[in-house]
Every structure is written in structure tokens, then in C-alpha cells.
Amino acid sequence: MNNRRSLMLAAILFVGAIAAGYWGLVISRQQPIAEVPVTQVVEQGVATVEDQTRHPVVVLVRDVPPHVALTADDVTLEKLRTAPAGSLTAIDQAVGRTPWRALTAGTWVSEQSFEVGGPLSRMIRPDERALAVAIDEVSGAGGQLTPGDYVDILLFLRQDAANPQQSAQVVLPAVRVLSVGEELGLTSDGQLARQPLNAEEALKQAQSRAAARTAVLAVPEPLLNQLMLATQAGTLRLAVRSAQEQRLSKYWAGEKEAPTNLENAKRSLYQFNQLAMASPPKVPVASTASGITRERGIEIIRGNQAAQQPAQ
């Protein structure tokens, strides 16, 4: 009797298991499981990792005129692989602040965006002045002069009535080149004085550098007047110094050597009449046998021949 009941119970359970399995199969067919492509999972993982390595940077979304406070609509937050030095990292750091110069769309915003002064004024130290000099392909180191180079300024003086002997000398050594034509160098803190151009404009600027007619130099303020006199006295040329001279930035700004270099430059500038603003040398007076004095004539030298021209 017990065996018969056990067989009947087993048969019922077996039929129930078959029914449950069939019912589960029907449900699984009605609600298919969505398959996620493996490539999509990988891409999402890579994007997450890259997002964690990028840095937020505040960037302008449109041109901003000077002296107008920034609004939230002017800026956006972008994530860059490398954040520019000094760039702002939150929109609230820029909103409400007023730039002193025009800023173009796509420019990343930094503290320098709100500093007073143009590019040149941010490229020189407080004891320097930016002075432009005329150059050509010869005087400008064969058209290869580049902002950031250090140059010696050479002066050539022709022989004339005020300068009895033609001569040449180094007027100022180790002077930093700030710009050549329209191409600017770096500011005093190592940042670009002007935001990077697009590739086409940068190429045009590099091509026009060789044809530049002006170069702006960082001149120590005590020597500014002397250099101005030199530009009017004779012909100037720029001699580029080696990049291996690592301490040229301290030539005029160093605490130990700068005072000595400054005094040496002052003394060397005054050895010519034009730079010293002195009167021409007096013509020597000779005495005749009768005791009457007369002025000596002017000696004129042509090649290996010399002749005396009577004084007027």
C-alpha cells in the first residue's frame, strides 16, 4: 500500500516538474534578454578611465570685448588631457570678472586674462623697457631672429668731422628679443603672450618673420637713453648669442653680476663723441716762424696718400 502511494506521488511530482519547465520556457521566449555588445562595454570602460584622467578647464564659447564682465553664457567647462598652467577650473571662478583686453572664442581663461596691460608689458620685468629697433635681413641676423633669443647690439660709426676714426663696438650685450615683426615670445612667467593661432595663421606668421622690419628688445631702464643715442649715431646690428649660455636671463637681473655689467655698459657707451653728446674735438693750433698762430689744416687720407686741406 505504501509503495503504491509513493509511486503515485512520484508520478505527480514528475508531471509537475515537466509543466514548470515548459512554463518557464514559454516565459523566457516572450521576454528575450537584451544582449549588450562586448565592444560597447569596452568603449564605456575606456571613456570612464579617460574622463578620470582629464582636467576641467574654463573656455570661452564666444568673443568677449574688453571691460565687460563675463557671464555664465560666455564660458563653458571642457575636460582636457593636459590643463594649461594657471587656467581656471570652475565656471564660478570666471563669472563676474572683467577682462582688460579682448578675448576670442576658444581661449582658455586664466588669471592673466584679467591682468592689466598688453602682451609687451607682460613680457618685461619692472626694471626693463620694451624698445623697437629697425632691422632688415642683414641687421636682423639673416632673417633668422626669433623671439626669446639673446643678442648683442653692435654699433658701427663712420669717420666724419665729429668722429675722427671709424670704429665698432658692442653697445649692449645679452639683450632679450621680445618680438620680431608680429611674432611675440613668452611673458615673464613663461606663458604665451598671445594665444595660439590656428595652423594657417601660424604658418603665415612664421613666413613673414624673415621679412620683418622691426624687432622689440628688452632694454635695462638705465641704458635706455644711451641706446637711443646709439640708434641715431650709426648703424646697428644684432648678433645672436648661443643658447648654451644658460645664465643670460640673469645678466641684467642677477643680484651679483648685474650691477657690474650695468656699469661696464655705461662706461663703454661714452667713449665716442656722438654717444657722449660732447662737442667735436678742437683743431690743434700751430705757430709760424713769425710768431703768428694759425690753425692746422684738415688731413685727408685717400688710400696710401695723405694731403692737407687748409682750414676754412
From TrEMBL:
Top-level lineage group: Bacteria
Organism: Pseudomonas helleri
Residue intervals passing through the bilayer: none
Alphabetical list of InterPro entries matching this protein: Pilus_assmbl_Flp-typ_CpaB, RcpC_dom, SAF
UniProt cross-references to CDD domains, sorted A to Z: SAF_CpaB_FlgA_like
Pfam families recorded: RcpC, SAF
Protein name stated in the entry: Flp pilus assembly protein CpaB
Coiled-coil annotated residue ranges, if any: none
Ranges where the SAF domain occurs: 55-115
